[in-house]
Amino acid sequence: MSHSLSEKITHRTAQVGVIGLGYVGLPLALACARAGFPTVGLEVNEQRAQDVNAAHSYIEDVSDVDLAPHVQAGRLRATTDYDVVRELDIIFICVPTPYTVQRAPDLVYIIKAAEGIATRLREGQLIVLQSTTYPGTTVEVVRPILEQASGLQAGHDFYLAFSPERIDPGNKQWSAYNTPKVVGGLTPESTALAAAFLRQTGAPVHEVSSPAAAELTKLLENTFRAVNIALVNEIALLAERMDIDFWEVLEAAKTKPFGFMPFSPGAGVGGHCIPIDPYYLLWKAREYDFYTRFIELAAETNETMPYHVVDLVVKGLSRQGKPLTGARVLVLGVAFKADIGDARNSPAERVIELLQGRGADVRYHDPYVPTYRVGGDVFQREPLTLHSVALTDAELAAADAVAIVTGHHDVDYARVLAHTSLVVDSCNVTHGLAGGATVIRLGAPLPQ
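Above: the chain's sequence. Below: its structure in token form.
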């Protein structure tokens, strides 16, 4: 059985399916098609499926030009019909893994995908979960669903593995085509087949002993970032109190050629990984009577940063004799990082909600995010959709304060300083620029 699938992989005739055509799934589907495999994306959002079939991309990291030759050649198509699973040899699950409002893992999309596969599963297929999740999900959640509905046995009748996604939106150097893959299968055969396929897409592959080891690998990577960001956020707050410019300290520390890795403080953490993945790990750890205090403290530190940004706005307005209530505040940048249009879990959401909750008139400008939704939570019960305003001189002049949350590089910050009275800069993009505005930088002494 494995020999047959192995041959299909070698000759690039294996029929590949990708469930979920979002930030992870669409680049993966394109990578499979580029490698010569007939690929179908299974997407519950009908508009997205239609867009792919029209060679239209809704993902920044994939262009229409990228899609067109593969769609036109018939190597890549999309559907909303799970019955296509019966035709496939290899199936990747690339669905979202959010958390609940209590920050517990929410596996509803993984479960639905597994259920959709299970009733159509046949012998010899390889199922690879890519969605970021806690150790044990592949074996404890996905495997039982597949086995019970199909009557087949994982590792004997079909193959099962986990290979974490490592997508970094907006990264031009590392993509789905060259970022090394980690893969761990339920059995050695499952690992070997999944690794053989992933190597065909062009990326190096590192094999581990189990799906759980691969699952924990991804959580380690993102928890590492979350903890280190929390560290510099905390030291930046200390530096403010000590009247030391943390950004100067960071530049000095970066000169050490070994033993130091630079991270930058800011208004918080965002995206689908860094704010969420540590909670998946600490939730699972409790099953083992293990309390990840260090990880939880890091999350707590990062989650306080939007509050600190608002406090800096209040402090700046107070110095000018203005209350926050009734003040117009212009937020610059709501994407979760610079120069992309992905605003998932951006700290800008909490900043805006806190400002509005204290009576401010809040507007925002982001050249990459035309509309932005806030609210629908305990901080602001009613959801509200905001629209990016043009960054005109008049808009800047009308603002009592400008809060820079995300430092997009194509914003003219010198012009911002020239046309407004108060700027709170959470990412140090105004350092060294001249202008008439009073500038309060996160992590730096207050201006005299």
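The chain has three domains: 2-208, 219-294, 304-441.
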